[in-house]
Amino acid sequence: MSRYTQRLQRTSSLTLAVGAIYNAASSPRRIAVYYWSMGSPATPADVAIEAELQLSTTAPTGGTARTPEKVDQADAAATTLAMEAPTANGTLGTPPVGTLLSLPVNGKATNQWYALPGNEFVNAATASYGFHIMTPISTALQSVYSTIMWEER
Amino acid sequence: MGPFGRRKGAAGYVVSTGPEGTVERDTLRCCHCQRHIIVPPGPPKPGEELYGVCRQCHSITCPPCAALGTCTPWEKQLERQEARGRMLKAILG
């Protein structure tokens, strides 16, 4: 079980994802997310942002493809794909299974979520299934950074 | 409290670091939809329903899953989704 990480960035949008990680159409694996952080590199200001990690069942399009980094350099390259700042989201899950975690974020603060072992967010090993990072609420549109770490199973 | 200062049953934690210092909150995990719920500090307010308990698997659930009243653990849902994906791939190629 190999671990990977990816930092994603965009000027926050109320409708478009900051980024997403998702299974390739071939060789889909279970993705187990165990760390997620949200912060802003902008000048510190009291901007209220709600960040959400959501399940998705299709891939986003139009963004910048990123190559996930290996946590252990001895591991093979990730089969999971990552995209930053898409122009169209994938299909997001619907409640009650849609939003996995809502993080209220202040523009001056950094928020990190850690899963205790066995409590990771896991998606199905199905083509294009994955996770989207959303900011559905933001009192000002500013640049946000999000780092996500996961294990391929 | 559990080991390492965690609440018993905690599934994760959120660390918020800002100008006013660092705040840490435990999270609980819904056994049916795997959603994590951030636990507010202090005792629950009267009438506040933070989470439910499934009467079949005796695990913590989020309020929407508790309202459904059915027990389908997340692992079972994953297996169904994967079986559906394999079937579609076999049909559509």
Account of the 3D structure:
The complex is a heterodimer of chains A (153) and B (93). With 153 residues, chain A is mainly beta. Chain A has one domain: Jelly Rolls (Sandwich). Chain A contains no helices and twelve strands. Chain A has strands spanning 2-11, 19-22, 31-39, 48-56, 64-66, 69-70, 81-84, 99-106, 110-115, 121-122, 130-138, 143-152. In chain A, strands 1, 3, 6, 9, 10 and 12 form a six-stranded antiparallel sheet that branches. The radius of gyration of chain A is 14 Å and the shape is globular. Chain B has 93 residues and is of the alpha+beta class. Chain B contains two helices and five strands, in the order βββββαα. Chain B has helices at 63-68, 74-92; strands spanning 12-18, 21-29, 36-38, 52-53, 60-61. In chain B, strands 1-2-3 form a three-stranded antiparallel sheet, with no helix packed on it. Chain B has a two-stranded antiparallel sheet with strand order 4-5. In chain B, a hairpin with a 6-residue loop joins strand 4 and strand 5. The longest helix of chain B is centred in the last third of the chain and has 19 residues, at 74-92. Chain B is extended, with a radius of gyration of 18 Å. At the A-B interface, strand 8, strand 9 and strand 10 of A face strand 1, helix 1 and helix 2 of B. Strand 9 (110-115) of chain A pairs antiparallel with strand 1 of chain B.
